[in-house]
Amino acid sequence: MNALCERVIGTLRRECLDWMIPLSESHLRSLLRTWIQHYNRGRPHMSLGPGIPDPPAATAPQSASRHRRGGSYSVRANPVLGGLHHEYCLVAA
User: What is the pTM of this model?
Assistant: First the structure.
């Protein structure tokens, strides 16, 4: 379990705390809540091939080719942690 804890803490430090300066304990808690939500719902994990642990419920319809989408969809970037990271999703145009 120690190795798992060290890996999560290292990821948290590299992806969040090395780039943000918490100004108070409440600010740190707010940053951690936002980062944990991003980590579990928006950040791809290579061990999942690369998948997301909690994928969104509503997704765009699948097409015959996994690389081409119809013209009725566009990509939306949602900033996380003030633009430090971004989550991308397909939305109807």
Answer: 0.64
Q: Which residue has the tokens 């300066």?
A: 21
End-to-end CA distance of the chain, in Å?
46
**Residue-wise DSSP of 25-93:** HHHHHHHHHHHHHHHHHTS-BGGGSSB-SS--S--PPP-SSSS---TTEEEEEEEETTTTEEEEEEEE-
| Mean pLDDT of all residues in 26-33 | 94
Element (H, E) at 2: helix 2-12
Cβ neighbors of 64 (< 8 A, separation 6 or more) are: none
How far CA 26 is from CA of 39, 59, 62, in Å, comes to 20, 34, 42
Q: Would the pLDDT of 28 be above 90? A: yes
Under DSSP, the state recorded for 4 is H
Neighbour tally for 31: CB within 10 Å = 20
